[in-house]
């Protein structure tokens, strides 16, 4: 390790002293870069007034010279052992996670007047990765009310309070197309209002974005918002929700490359010592020193290992107009501690799941991850339908066998991802009610078509379909539905005894939550029905040939 550190120090000293090769070469390169910068500015201005064909070659030559100077005077990016292990071996030593009040101390040291917090939330277990007390903990401006004349800026202690935007990342895990995910926006706002305890009548909650860094959905709009706002852009969220990926996709890169090259050359040559690598650190400051803006900024390391970012990372943009600060992730639970090392990466959903709908009959239970989670209906007469949007294996078996498998008394028939010592920690995570009526989205085909085509009201049916989503922290969700008899009157149908319930068992009774059903399985069912209609019908068989085959 010390050999590696000495090597980095020697490389830095060599870069600081001998990078241009000699003093004469360095001065020549600087003078050429200054001429190139002035040439770029003149040609850009003249190109706007009177475009000429010969300017293209001159701009290209000047940009090449200036870029060469910027590369030679750029401080070498030093990679620590932890980042090296994350990039090449996908492993790292766990570090303590900060609290939301630690983030507040970072915000107090902000050098910017205008600050905006982007709270990154994972779509896989939404809203479990939401920090529900974020408004009070970080002293954020209250969400805008429906009164358009209300003040949009508030101050406290002489400082302008920061604003907030909610970003739901990895939205491509919800549906296959952008339009289908868009249709869930009102659902997302409704769940957020309930989690934040905001009134529907008073607050609009228009500061919600659903993006996909992998598919490039809605990243352009968020990028423009960040560029226009400027100031301090603080990225807050729990571990492994995609904060670094969000920065990589939405960082406002400068589109005016030629002007930026010229400005960086002027700024670099104006420095007293361009090769000075020693940065004075303040012992009282929690934030690291702000780096100078480069042509190609170094973005945070992206890894599936939780807790990749261990300290704030500042990335300036817009010619000093603002900066993005990637903050360490907050605690998200330690479900990974109960999973074997070789299967920890399997707990993160990286691709959209298209599960089959499993039938859990009376006397059966649903096992996930070889016993990591067990779901059992309280009423032995109910038949559960489960669509498991999780990256781990789902298995339906008798309840007695499921209990023995979770306790380690019976071998699991599939691939076991749970640690052997985790079996002793299995306990009840609570009883969850399937209290949301989704009968309208589960109508028979003929009735659903009549309701859609003719606009007739849904007829009174002798049954109801109740549903809920069981959330597994950092992993995914399970859509549960059950069909029950409709009560003869409203009091009977709304009585607590008539609401179906399930009990969920997990390590230490944690890492489990619930929410109203998002009903993403309907997209899969509609796609399969459409594919089935497009298939050509099977041709009619020759009866004589079939009869001869039977006689033979």
TrEMBL record:
Region (Disordered): 9-31, 488-513, 530-552
GO cellular component, one term: mitochondrion
InterPro entries named among the record's database cross-references: Mito_lipid_metab_GTPase (IPR050896), P-loop_NTPase (IPR027417)
Low complexity composition bias: residue spans: 495-507
Protein name from the UniProt record: G domain-containing protein
Native source species: Aspergillus turcosus
């Amino acid at each position: 390790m010390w050999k590696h550190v000495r090597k980095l120090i020697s490389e830095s000293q060599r870069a600081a002293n001998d990078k241009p090769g000699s003093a004469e070469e360095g001065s020549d390169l600087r003078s050429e870069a200054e001429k190139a910068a002035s040439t770029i500015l003149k040609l850009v201005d003249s190109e706007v007034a009177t475009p000429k064909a010969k300017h293209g070659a001159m701009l290209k030559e000047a940009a090449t010279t200036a870029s060469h100077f910027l590369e030679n005077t750029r401080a070498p990016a030093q990679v620590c052992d932890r980042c090296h292990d994350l990039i090449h071996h996908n492993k790292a030593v766990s570090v303590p996670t900060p609290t939301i009040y630690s983030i507040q101390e970072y915000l107090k040291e902000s050098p910017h007047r205008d600050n905006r917090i982007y709270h990154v939330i994972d779509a896989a277990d939404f809203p479990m990765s939401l920090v529900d007390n974020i408004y009070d903990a970080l002293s954020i401006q209250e969400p805008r009310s429906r009164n358009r004349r209300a003040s949009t800026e508030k101050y406290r202690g002489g400082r302008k309070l920061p604003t907030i935007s909610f970003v739901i990342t990895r939205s491509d895990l919800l549906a296959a197309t952008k339009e289908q995910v868009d249709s869930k926006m009102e659902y997302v706002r409704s769940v957020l209002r309930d989690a934040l305890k905001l009134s529907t009548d008073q607050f609009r909650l228009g500061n919600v974005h659903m993006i996909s860094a992998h598919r490039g959905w809605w990243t352009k709009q968020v990028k423009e918002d960040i560029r226009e706002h400027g100031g301090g852009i603080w990225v807050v969220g729990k571990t492994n929700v995609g904060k670094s990926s969000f920065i990589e996709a939405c960082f406002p890169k400068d589109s005016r490359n030629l002007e930026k090259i010229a400005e960086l050359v002027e700024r670099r040559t104006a420095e007293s010592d361009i090769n000075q690598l020693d940065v004075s650190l303040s012992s009282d400051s929690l934030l690291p020193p702000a780096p100078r803006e480069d042509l190609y900024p170094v973005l945070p390391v992206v890894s599936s290992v939780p807790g990749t970012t261990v300290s704030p990372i500042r990335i300036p943009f817009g010619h000093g107009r603002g900066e993005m600060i990637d903050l360490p992730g907050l605690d998200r639970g330690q479900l990974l501690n109960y999973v074997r090392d070789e299967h920890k990466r399997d707990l993160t959903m990286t691709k959209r799941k298209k599960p089959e709908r499993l039938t859990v009959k009376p006397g059966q239970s649903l096992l996930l991850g070889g016993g990591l989670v067990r779901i059992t209906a309280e009423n032995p007469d109910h038949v559960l339908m489960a669509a498991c949007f999780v990256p781990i294996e789902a298995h339906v078996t008798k309840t007695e066998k499921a209990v023995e498998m979770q306790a380690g008394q019976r071998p699991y028939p599939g691939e076991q991802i749970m640690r052997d010592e985790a079996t002793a920690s299995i306990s009840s995570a609570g009883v969850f009610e399937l209290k949301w009526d989704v009968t309208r989205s589960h109508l028979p085909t003929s009735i659903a078509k009549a309701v859609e085509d003719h606009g007739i009201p849904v007829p009174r049916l002798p049954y109801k379909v109740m549903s809920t989503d069981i959330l597994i922290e950092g992993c995914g969700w399970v859509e549960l539905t059950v069909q029950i008899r409709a009560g003869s009157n409203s009091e009977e149908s709304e009585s607590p005894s008539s609401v179906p319930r399930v009990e969920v068992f997990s390590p230490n009774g944690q890492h489990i939550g619930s929410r109203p059903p998002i009903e993403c399985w309907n997209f899969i069912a509609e796609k399969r029905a459409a594919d089935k209609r497009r298939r050509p019908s099977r041709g009619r068989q020759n009866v004589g040939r079939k009869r001869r085959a039977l006689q033979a």
